[in-house]
Amino acid sequence: MKHVPVLLQESVDILLSGRSFSGDHGVIVDATFGGGGHTRRLLELGGDLVNVVAIDRDPAAVARSADLKKDFPGRFQLLPGNFADLDQLLDDAGIGRIDGLLLDIGLSSFQLEEGERGFSFQNEGPLDMRMDPAVGRPASAIIQESDVETLTRIFREFGEEPYAAAIARKIVAGRRQKPLLTTRSLALLIADMVPDYKQSRRHPATRVFQALRIFVNDELKALEEVLEAGLERLNPGGRMVVISYHSLEDRLVKSFFREAAKGCICPPRVPVCGCGRVSRVKIIHRPGLRPQPDEIERNPRSRSACLRAIEKL
Fold first, then answer.
1. Domain 116-217 homologous superfamily, CATH
2. 183-191 vs 164-177: helix axis angle to the nearest 10?
3. Contact indicator for 124, 184 with CB cutoff of 8 Å
4. What is the pLDDT of residues 221-230, one digit of tens each?
5. In what order do the strands lie in the sheet with 306-312?
6. Is CATH 3.40.50.300 correct for 8-110+219-312?
7. What are phi and psi of 43, to 5 degrees?
8. pLDDT tens for each residue of 26-42
9. Which of the two residues, 286 and 112, has the higher pLDDT score?
10. How far apart are CA 175 and CA 83, in angstroms?
């Protein structure tokens, strides 16, 4: 199994090209280590001028990081944990300011292909979906225990599912006959509502699985927290790159970047600024970057990706 990093060259170019770092070397945080593809390229191209600190709450990431520790001694370390706890993780590791932050907030191929993790309806496995299997409640508990109103809200708010209420009613009725404990059982129940779904590019369970994963892992709150903490940690001139894969994440990132880039908000008729507000960042690339057709052909999972980036002033 091989994980193919998305928008690899574009993200690395932004984080490295034309950079001068504050000390003997720059510290770049890859807060979503995953398969380590972005980290490896940063270490290869950054040379001795760049150290990378990686973060991942998936316990399997520790094993995947072993080769990097061997190949780049003294320049790489992995901090197991949730990127929402960025400040605490960096403080505990004795790391202060940083020069770059990368957030690739999609699932890795490892997580999608491992059926026992329960992230994908294409592989049979327990309906789990926890990034860290030791933390929180699995998706099966949400499906088995939540009422129609709660499930409707989850599917609508976190999956933007137009048939959220109908699917929620179908789940509650279906679980009375047989517990919905596996990825396949849930996917088949939802697909049964759309007999001709095979004619569509998107499986009818896609939005529901997305919603459950985001809810189970509290992903949007975690993203909000790491964006603010990361911006505070950046040195002046430091850059942040965020790659998102669906509209909920992208809207959150876009809104945060716009707000951080906003300067004076006094009415135009006011001759002298009274608000004292100054831009914290400048936005790199308007609009966000999308994968080129050749990348999408090589890696179809990249087709929904959007890269946004800022530089701290």
1. Putative methyltransferase TM0872, insert domain (1.10.150.170)
2. 120
3. yes
4. 999 999 999 9
5. 76-80, 50-56, 26-30, 98-104, 234-244, 306-312, 281-289
6. no
7. -70, -40
8. 999 999 998 899 999 99
9. 286
10. 34
